Amino acid sequence: MIVILDFGSQYSELIARRIRETHVYSEVMSYQTDIKKICELNPKGIIFSGGPNSVYSDFSPQCDRKIWDLGIPILGICYGMQLMVQQLGGQVEKAKYGEYGKALLRIDDPTDLFTNLEDGSIMWMSHGDSSTKLPEGFSILAHTENTPCAAIANHDKKLFGVQFHPEVVHSVGGIAIIRNFVYHICGCEPTWTTKAFVDETIDGIRKKVKDRKVLLALSGGVDSSTLAFLLHQAIGDNLTCMFIDQGFMRKGEPERLVSIFSKQFHIPVEYVDARERFIKKLEGIVDPEEKRHLIGHEFIQVFEEESQRLGPFDYLAQGTLYPDVIESADTNINSSTGERVAVKIKSHHNVGGLPKNLRFKLVEPLRKLFKDEVRRVGQSIGLPEEIVRRHPFPGPGLAIRIIGEVTAERLNILRDADFIVRDEISKQGVYHDFWQAFAVLLPIRSVGVMGDKRTYSHPIVLRFITSEDGMTADWAKVPYELLEIISNRIVNEVEAVNRIVYDITSKPPGTIEWE
Ligand code: XMP
């Protein structure tokens, strides 16, 4: 395995994913992790991530200096390289010219890290500091126009540094550098495969759970569905899948989910119809955070009641993923006081994410996986495309796409409009061009004219976005023709709607959902 020490880079998870793409297991840990804990994992290599700080600033994250003498190969990326230079006796200074974006990499030493890499490859840079004096034993592997030390190495000690970001997709040949590091320098074997994961996980579940009973809250998303499959293969009927219908799912989804699982895959699903309870709870509620809290709270309530009815159970299966368990470096630091700052935008409600203080022991077989790895596992065990490649859908569902009060009537309006959006983009074969594409119902009305009659009805907002991870997003530049078809269909087929508008806000400053 490869350990990635996170110094606050926005790319730390990406580094881990790139390494796993080479079929080598990797984990992200905070730069503050005790060196003993790192050694216990017996990593074949360590990568230092980039980070937002300057190595010479007062609060710069530092690592235990003993790490350089462990004899484990290390690759420092950006801040990670600068830290290597600084701690080993070289010098880092504010560069005369920073480098942001593309840079042409000229290779001076085509061995080790740069084996089989083309001279003149484009690499992605993002730095204002540069290494101006190398520590003893180091030499330059590559340079760019503005950065003489763009890549460095101490070959004897197997310490390497790159000022650019090989992990980002814009760095041409970046993945080759990562492969050279993990295979040739660290000597890793490509053993991290989907099949190996599935076999090991099923075996692991059997050993842990034995003949005890497990409860799973199914949501219809790829995580809980994959979990249901793995658990069912491992323990058969000792698994109970519970699907709580809050009434905020999309048109036809609850029926489809129950039918896929029980009819197609012979995994029985306990369908809990809680629609009335939820809509009653939301009566008169317009504040987005209050809505989210009430839905989350009610969900737990229903879950507890139903689990008592169906139980007893020994274990609760959770779809916890790797990004939820990474203890990344928190380097959001106030530069004058050194205090850490956290900002909350929304309280997320996740159907799988029940509180830890329920009376169950937990089984979390996906906790080592990234989302794209879950998709691959789902695919490999035969989950249908419609689940594996479904757009993300928030736990509170359509309720947070109805601005203002959620009523049965307004839910029906939005559900019909949402159906048309999904139907059209699927028909046109562009469903996967978007990260998400959905409709939002506004609480206002406007005047229109239909069939010579005045109308006074609701506008629907179309929100189509592209994104890599949902953290940042851009509004999709959808062809006018597609917008036209969708707009026509919605105003013609959904009675209470007479106007369609298109949201052209990226994230930031907007968020993806309207609430
Ligand atoms: P925002 O609106 O914060 O959304 O830009 C980012 C991504 O998260 C999804 N989302 C949620 N997912 N529970 C979830 O499971 C939630 O409460 C929730 N709120 C937003 C959203 O659809 C987008 O993909």
From TrEMBL:
Keywords: ATP-binding, Glutamine amidotransferase, GMP biosynthesis, Ligase, Nucleotide-binding, Purine biosynthesis. GO terms for cellular component: cytosol. Signal peptide: none annotated. It holds the Pfam family GATase. The active site is at residues 78, 165, 167. GO terms for molecular function: ATP binding; GMP synthase activity. PANTHER family: GMP SYNTHASE [GLUTAMINE-HYDROLYZING], GMP SYNTHASE-RELATED. HAMAP family: GMP_synthase. This is GMP synthase [glutamine-hydrolyzing].
